[in-house]
Backbone:
């Protein structure tokens, strides 16, 4: 059984922060913050594609669990991914040229 701090770091740091970092990196590659002509389409791609891919990962974890997992582990992780995606989308929006 993992320690409580290990569980907390795995849940919050790995899931929410990974989505934030992936979304911001995707936005950087697409030029959302630096290109005034990037527009809403690139912003939506940067905000949604990482979340959708990680949501598919959680669906796979829920469908085919690897090891001991409780019934709501994947749902909690999906919620943390959604929280990270929301935060990253707000950060991307704030960094876009006016």
Residues:
């Amino acid at each position: 059984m993992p320690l409580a701090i290990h569980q907390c770091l795995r849940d919050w740091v790995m899931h929410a922060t990974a989505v934030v970092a992936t979304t911001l990196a995707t936005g950087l590659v697409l030029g959302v913050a630096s290109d005034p002509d990037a527009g809403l389409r690139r912003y939506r791609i940067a905000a949604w594609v990482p979340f959708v891919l990680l949501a598919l990962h959680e669906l796979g974890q829920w469908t085919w669990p690897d090891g001991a997992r409780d019934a709501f582990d994947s749902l909690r992780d999906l919620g943390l991914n959604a929280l990270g995606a929301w935060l990253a989308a707000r950060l991307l929006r704030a960094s876009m040229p006016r």
User: Anything to note?
Assistant: The mean pLDDT is 84.
